[in-house]
């Protein structure tokens, strides 16, 4: 795999191959577009090139790809003297022929890699967690066949969660690439049904949801009502313990005797209390409704409208 490295600024000689590729694309396609700055050679007082920009990103990308394909089909004399394979197989000295013949004859130092691993190395790195509910990232949960086969969710449930290296595509939440083992490459993991609300969305929308939840938590601190509820719960527990101490002389057999009948009596007592409250409310509502009925004003009866087909 290609190793990523950063060269010092203003040192194009440290990456001559890359700079030459930029030069080829600039000369063959990019500087031919309307709106280009042509490498920054703008005379003061001249027309701003941004006013002439008319192409979309898709159109520019399409033309760059076409220029690369044309470059690979072009004949270069230096390639004929770089390797005898082109002459031996009677192939034109083009970059695409040079590439294909060396692959066919195994005259290269390339390494085989899985497509998911290659794509993952082009994406920004993040850290995810293996949890009991799946691979967690930014409020979303993912899984794959390897996670299910190795039963990693159960391991996280019993042993605790752990962190994993991953790569994300910021344009979609449908999948991420996770390195389940340090000695292996990245594995494609798909969004779980529990996170289906974010299906076909971007990672930015997921981040917005997390920010929204955080803002709601900040705006909803501990209220006076929750504090009072907590104090009442403690008081209820204290009273229950005191009541339990007073009944320590009662044996366990007596406590568990006629449990069903005691439960029925307790439910009946509670239901009667609620029924009495309900009846009192209905009485109040009935009396108030009588007062309202007494104040009803009758409206004059209007003319009866006849419809087509009614007997006269």
Which characteristics define this entry?
single chain; 312 residues; alpha+beta; 6-stranded antiparallel beta barrel
Beta-strand portion reads 5-15%
Number of distinct helices: 12
Percent helix among the residues?
Answer: 40-55%
In the sheet with the most strands, the strands line up as: 1-2-3-6-5-4
Give the termini separation: 95 Å
The average pLDDT value, as a whole number, equals 81
Along the chain, the helix and strand elements come as HHHHHHEEEHHEEEHHHH
Could you characterize what this model shows?
The protein is an alpha+beta fold and 312 residues long. Among the domains are: 12-104, no CATH class; 115-217, no CATH class. 47% of the residues lie in helices and 10% in strands. The chain contains twelve helices and six strands. It has helices spanning 16-28, 57-73, 77-80, 84-88, 95-104, 115-120, 145-149, 152-159, 203-219, 224-246, 252-255, 259-294, and strands at 125-131, 134-137, 140-143, 162-168, 175-179, 187-191. It has a six-stranded antiparallel beta barrel. The N and C termini lie far apart (95 Å).
In short:
The chain is α+β, with helices and mostly antiparallel strands.
How are the elements arranged and paired?
Blueprint: H1 16-28, H2 57-73, H3 77-80, H4 84-88, H5 95-104, H6 115-120, E1 125-131, E2 134-137, E3 140-143, H7 145-149, H8 152-159, E4 162-168, E5 175-179, E6 187-191, H9 203-219, H10 224-246, H11 252-255, H12 259-294
Antiparallel strand pairs: 1-2, 1-4, 2-3, 3-6, 4-5, 5-6
């Amino acid at each position: 795999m290609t190793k990523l490295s950063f060269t010092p600024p203003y040192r194009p000689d440290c990456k001559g191959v890359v700079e030459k590729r930029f030069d080829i694309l600039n000369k063959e396609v990019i500087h031919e577009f309307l709106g280009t700055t042509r490498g920054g050679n703008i005379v003061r007082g001249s027309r701003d090139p941004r006013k002439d920009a008319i192409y979309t990103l898709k159109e520019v990308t399409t033309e760059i790809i076409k220029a690369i394909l044309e470059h690979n089909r072009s004949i270069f004399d230096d390639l004929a003297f770089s390797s005898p394979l082109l002459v031996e197989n009677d192939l034109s000295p083009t970059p695409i022929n040079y590439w294909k013949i060396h692959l066919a004859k195994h005259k290269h130092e390339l390494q085989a890699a899985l497509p998911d691993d290659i794509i993952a190395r082009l994406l920004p790195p993040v850290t995810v967690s293996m949890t009991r509910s799946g691979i967690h990232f930014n409020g979303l949960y993912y899984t794959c066949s390897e996670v299910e086969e190795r039963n990693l969710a159960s391991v996280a449930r019993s042993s605790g969660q752990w962190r994993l290296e991953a790569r994300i595509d910021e344009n979609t939440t449908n999948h991420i690439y996770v390195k389940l083992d340090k000695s292996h490459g990245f594995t494609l993991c798909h969004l779980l049904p529990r996170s289906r609300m974010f299906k076909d969305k971007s990672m930015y929308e997921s981040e917005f949801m997390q920010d929204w939840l955080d803002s709601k938590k900040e705006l909803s601190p501990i209220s006076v009502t929750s504090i009072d509820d907590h104090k009442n719960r403690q008081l209820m527990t204290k009273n229950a313990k005191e009541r339990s101490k007073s009944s320590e002389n009662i044996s366990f057999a007596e406590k568990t005797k006629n449990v069903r009948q005691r439960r029925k009596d307790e439910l009946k007592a509670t239901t009667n209390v609620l029924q009495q409250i309900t009846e009192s409310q209905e009485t109040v509502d009935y009396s108030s409704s009588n007062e309202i009925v007494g104040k009803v004003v009758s409206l004059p009866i209007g003319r009866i409208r006849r419809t087509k087909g009614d007997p006269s």
